[in-house]
Known about the structure:
Layout lengths: L1 E6 L2 H17 L4 E6 L3 H7 L16 H11 L10 H19 L1 H11 L7 H11 L3 E5 L4 H12 L3 E4 L9 H4 L6 E4 L2 H9 L7 E3 L11 H14 L5 E7 L16 H15 L4 E7 L16 E4 L6 H7 L2 E4 L3 H8 L4 E4 L3 H5 L10 E3 L5 H10 L13 H12 L11
Parallel strand pairs: 1-2, 1-3, 3-4, 4-5, 5-6, 7-8, 7-10, 8-9, 10-11, 11-12
Amino acid sequence: MKALFVTYGGGHVSMVLPVMRQLRVLHPRIECVLLALTTGHSRAVKAGEAPLGYKDFMHLYDADSVEHWGRKLHPRNISPDVGEEESIAYLGINYLDLVARLGGQDAADTYAAHGRYSFLPLNFMRRVLDAIRPDVVVCTNSPRSEQAALEVAVERGIPSVGMVDLFGLDSDTYVLRLVKPQYTCVISESVGQRLLARGFPPEGIRVTGNPAFDGLFDPANREQAHAFLRRKGWEGKKIILNAGAWEPVSHPGTDIPAGRSFPIQIEHILRAYVRERPCTALILRYHPGDWFEYPRLADDPQVHFSEPPREPIHPLILASSVITNTNSTVGLESAVAGKPVISIENSPSVHTWFSLAALGVSYPSPTHLDLPATLDRVLADPQPMRTFQSDGQAATRVAQVVARALDRPISVSRTI
């Protein structure tokens, strides 16, 4: 039996890797094949996996055409965490797939308007599934390649399992898809109810928790957190972890522009905050997909600039006293870990998609300018929210769902 996992980077590959490990423990005869894309590839390699990428399927295409389009699109899609060969294969194959789906001019217009967000490589995934011949396909709720893999699995009658990382709101394209997988694993009963209202099969919704959060309960990560504080000389300080992310859209409800200027403003406010309070220190952590695009100021004894490819997030969360963000996955992870979270509510992404404060995850800071006062208040009485809970066993529960999808049932433990 063969299980194909497809994932991007960031929090998504962090969901998939522990499920693969648990599936091998629970069902050693199931072969796990991983297609890890963008920054997920290097993360998978560091975890001891041998992932496939787009470049491993170049033989299924006309290599000259892939190379032509890949190199043409590559200059605007460079990441130091993704190899050039993989980037060219990813961009070239996806663009050829877009042309096959829409035609040449419509593909050009669509890509000009939406960039990589226009990709949905259904033809590529048909070829991949023909080559790998999986018995089950497992993906998170990312669009593009993951969506295409699940849609083709359903099209072929192959068992399919999706994993929703956050809240299942309508801002998550997974929730609104017409093609729905056989099973969907969610973090809470409330998320399951949202999916049920959107037409997902009730027998397929499983409350498992998010496997990416299991590491928060690993004693090794707690020890790494202590080691980090000792190394920085920060023991006894109040540590602020800022999970920064760019604003991909603007919104009429706020005057904050799209782009990276807002997280940079937040960084300057937080640097000033810790500079005025010697008992505090700051960890700056930008998204794994674009951390390298932010200006890096001179080293400061009270500030640590985290490089995601070289530094896992869970020890940093466990080392922190409070987490600041807009509406990132790190905010939810931190609440699950029992840490107080502050969300900055005037960001375009909060207006466009969701507010962690409204969902019971965080304390609201109405604007970035209110952040110092909000930090003072929360640090004076650092009580975490308890809306979302976990127990460190989500990967086991998802692995059991995958085994069930393969019609090889094993005992399924309780949900959270």
